[in-house]
Write a structure and sequence with these properties.
single chain; 238 residues; alpha+beta; two-stranded antiparallel sheet; 8 helices; 33% helix
Length: 238
């Protein structure tokens, strides 16, 4: 089993992007949140992504964005589980990292995934983390959701990408609650504002993604034509 085999399996399971990192590329992780803190025999981190339909950003209603997020999360978890099973069928130990599950890290006072998916994806060459704290990929911009698998298989890592964020600051200015003014996002302030129940509609929803909207790199090359068409329509309607 080599890196090409693993990427082929990930794509067969529905991944749009897949890359591989060595655990050492994540040596900057806080204590307890390194891949080897989870799987001591880990030799490779497999990171993958599914595209998040860009049309969600064009909607006046929060319902499509919320529904996409709530559907894509279990999809990625099932893909990770199935990839682990396929690796174990080949005699290679593997474990999935949950896509949307956090725990409180009392050492740093922040919520964390057991292994940071966006840092794993960056370490696997899928993209780079922007000022808004989201992963930006060349193909889909920030319109991706992430998954990962740790394995004892020693696989060839992918090259790292240069930063795709030029630090323009548009995301910082767009945040209605100033959650990005410091280098580390103010997690709870962001989550309390963006996620929650709408008392009028009596539903749970994601009501804010303005940092994603404001980013000039939010769509990527695969969505570039869509962006040009929307800009053209806007000009025609002036």
């Amino acid at each position: 089993m080599n890196a090409a085999d693993v990427k082929r399996m990930a794509r067969e399971l529905g991944a749009d992007l897949c890359g591989i990192a060595t655990p050492e590329r994540l040596d900057g992780a806080p204590k307890g949140y390194h891949p080897r803190d989870v799987l001591p025999s880990c030799r490779s981190v497999i990171a993958f992504a599914c595209r998040f339909p860009a049309g969600a950003l064009a909607c006046a209603s929060p319902v499509p964005y919320t529904r996409i997020r709530n559907t894509i999360t279990p999809k990625l978890d099932m893909m990770a589980l199935e990839l682990c099973c396929r690796l174990e069928d080949a005699g290679l130990l593997a474990v999935p990292i949950p896509t949307n599950e956090s725990e409180w890290d009392g050492q740093t006072g922040r919520w964390r995934s057991v292994v940071s998916l966006k840092h794993a994806a960056q370490a696997a060459g899928l993209g780079s983390i922007g000022r808004h704290s989201l992963l930006i990929t060349p193909e889909f911009g920030s319109m991706v959701w992430l998954g990962a698998v740790l394995t004892e298989a020693e696989l060839e890592p992918d090259p790292l990408l240069p930063s795709l964020c030029d630090g323009c600051g548009l995301c910082v200015a767009a945040c209605p609650i100033h959650a990005l003014e410091k280098q580390e996002m103010a997690q709870e302030a962001c989550w309390n504002y963006a996620f929650g129940n709408d008392p009028e509609k009596r539903r749970w929803q994601i009501s804010c993604h303005r940092c994603r909207d404001a980013c000039p790199r939010n769509l990527g090359s695969r969505n570039a034509d869509m962006k040009r068409e929307r800009e053209s329509d806007s000009h025609e309607n002036l």
